[in-house]
Design a protein that fits this description.
homodimer; 192 residues; mainly alpha; DNA-binding
Chain lengths: 192, 192
DNA sequence: GTCAACTTTGACACGGCTGTCAAGGACAGG
DNA sequence: CCTGTCCTTGACAGCCGTGTCAAAGTTGAC
């Protein structure tokens, strides 16, 4: 029962992501992580150090994946469709799969109270997202009802709101309705 | 050191509100509540029963206050100004005073994981808010760029997003900028 | 085969939180 | 004054979480 490492680090980080997503950072214990990943608590401490390290590794992985998916969706030549595709990804991200909830929003809500480092990481993700959105809005030009900077911030804020509403109602369809209203507002179809 | 109740229940609920707001439900312990209110832990158990009861009393008080303030702001005959006033209240609610953060959003983010009862209470508040907003949007008529129902949901979602962004950046001015963009979008000034 | 390096595992000490309780003090009504 | 009722206080048992560590086992290299 020893020698070389017995567990798959990726699998552990995957399990950790699910837990952090559902319960947040503070409410997730090393024992939770151990149970969910099938790895002994001691082994986790040995391999990662402590919970904060597990989190940082988990979140870096998540962030990369999320931003890549967002960039791909926003690359659509039709900016309206790009935004809709991005928002659909955001919704799928928090409602599909066995574990619901948006990881970054869950963490953001814990604020600086819980762990300043966690909050910093979330800020990095949201800043990155805002940049992607601003680029897309710039490309959209006049089709977008707001200047690129304002539009980007508004979209970021709106997606955070979606994540909270998911927690409250757990209804993906309802979120899609809000998305449709929002997109219609930001990219009005011109009565040319 | 006994006889009649030694502490002011309102003061305890006020202290509890600050703690729940800053730390959420799960992360706030009876010991925290005791320290913040200056009342012994045992006395709190004696007077309220348990943490859930303290919370329910605290939140009912908060909800009444918040909805009353929202209704007053939205009563403005100019719907655009009413919405702006309401959003300003929402921002003040989460950035003014010694403790920052939005109570209902903080609680909502904990979702059903923490305590189903807590989530229910938040839903009641948000549903109440949505109704107020829908009435206001109905009164606004064509001035509002969306049908009343959609507008109301969008505003609720947006305010939740604002609360999350407050946690991340802690910058009230930034929130006001987003509000200005949002109001401009929902109540466009017509180039009559 | 031997050895060093590494991993796993269970155990430990420590501290925090919960919910309960008994002892004791204070107040109001009779 | 007396008595019943209520409140406060400190203490307790039980559970959970953390971080560390020594013992023991496995692997790969020489």
């Amino acid at each position: 029962m020893a020698g070389r490492r017995q567990f798959d680090e990726e699998a552990v980080l995957g399990a950790a992501e699910g837990l952090f997503r559902a319960q947040g950072y503070g409410a997730t214990s090393m024992l939770d992580l151990a149970r969910a990943s099938g790895v002994q608590r001691g082994s986790l401490y040995h391999a990662f150090g402590d919970k904060e390290q597990v989190f940082l590794r988990t979140f870096a992985r998540y962030r990369e994946r999320f931003l890549a998916a967002a960039a791909e969706a926003l690359a659509d030549p039709d900016p309206r469709r790009g935004l809709a595709a991005f928002l659909e990804i955001a919704i799928a991200n928090m409602t599909a799969g066995p574990v619901r909830g948006c990881l970054s929003t869950r963490l953001a809500s814990e604020g600086t109270q819980g762990n300043a480092r966690v909050c910093d990481e979330v800020r990095v993700l949201l800043d990155g997202l805002e940049r992607l959105l601003e680029e897309a809005a710039t490309r959209a030009g006049a089709a977008c009802a707001l200047p690129p900077g304002e539009a980007a911030r508004l979209v970021v804020t709106f997606t955070r709101g979606l994540a909270v509403m998911e927690r409250v109602h757990g209804d993906a369809e309802r979120l899609r309705e809000s998305v449709a209203s929002f997109v219609a507002l930001l990219f009005p179809r011109r009565p040319s």
